[in-house]
Every structure is written in C-alpha cells, then in structure tokens.
Amino acid sequence: MNIEVIHLGPMANCTYLVTQDENALLIDPAWDMNALEQTLKAKKLNLLAVLFTHGHFDHVKTAETLLKAHGLRAYIEENDVLLSGLPGEVLQPYHGEQNLQIGPFKVHIIPTPGHTAGGVCILIGDALFTGDTLFPGACGRVDLPSSDPREMRKSLYRLSQLPDDTQIFAGHSYGGKSGSFISYERQTNPFMRNAIKDKDIL
Fold first, then answer.
1. pTM here?
2. Which residues contact 41 (CB under 8 A, 6 or more apart)?
3. Which of 68, 74, 108, 181 would bridge 123 by S-S if both were Cys, CB 3.0 to 4.6 A apart?
4. Contact, 48 vs 34, CB < 8 A?
C-alpha cells in the first residue's frame, strides 16, 4: 500500500491518495478536483471510493464534481451530512463504527466526535487518517457549532489506545507537518496526555 499526501487549497489541507496496484482511495478530496483528476489519470488509477473524515467545507469543497464524474458516493458519518452541504445523491451516509472491504483495502472507521459531531478517523492497515481530530502535538478546535470538548477528550483517549506504530496522517499540515505516530503523541501531545489522565472521569 502506498500513501501520497496532496496539498490543496489555502488552508494547508491534506488530501490523501491511498493506492494498491491500480486501485485507489481518496480521503478528504477538496479544493482542486482538476489536480486530483490529473493525478489519477497520470498514474492510471481506478478510483474505488472517497471517504470524508468530517463535513467541514475545507475537507469537501468541490468534491461533488469528482464524485459525479466517477459515479461514486462518498462515505460520511451521518451526523455530518448536513454540515457537508453536499447533495444526498453523492453521499453514502453510515452511523458509528464500520469495517469496510473496498477492493483490496480493509477500512476500519473509528468514530471520533469532538471537532464535529460526525468526525471519524479512518484506519487502513497501520495508517490512521485523523482529519481534524488529531494533529502532531495538537487536536482540532472544539469551539465550533457542532464541537464538544468532552467528546474530543474521549476520542483522543480512544486513539491513545491504538498500537504504538500506528502512523498518523492529519487533515492539515500546520507548521509544515502532518505526520506522526501514536506512540509519540501519547508521550508528547498535551491534549492526548490530558485525555489519558482524565480517562476515569470522562
């Protein structure tokens, strides 16, 4: 499995292209569908699915064009459907934890509300696509309309229990960095450390 980060848009967003042989998944495609289409064509890839970590506009912007072009419905947690602003015909809503087999990819969707009500992290192998739940050294904002600080702490604690070698691929490259490991975040990320400390009262 190969993972390529594609930086698009003015907000340091990371779209992830996950490939195995000619098969591809896109996670949080946003902003520039022409660039993504050119990448898929140049690499002669077959796009099997699109998955969103959450519904904020900067993670879904203009994705409708790509979805319609490929005849796909994007996976999104049902609590973020309205937030996404995307029409129902291009979405495949689901509720809660999921295990999906998409071509050769085994996809485990972990509900991680806090930044948004329907926020999730997407685990494929040992790669965890965290959207705006977990960043290197930080976590997503919890002062937005569908945010919940308590739920964020619960989500961070849940992520802290994943294996040490779980590699993090965050939704933005703030400070030029979007990658880390659960082991490192468990030791150094103050938000995750607080969630672990408070686990008994969550």
1. 0.97
2. none
3. 108
4. no
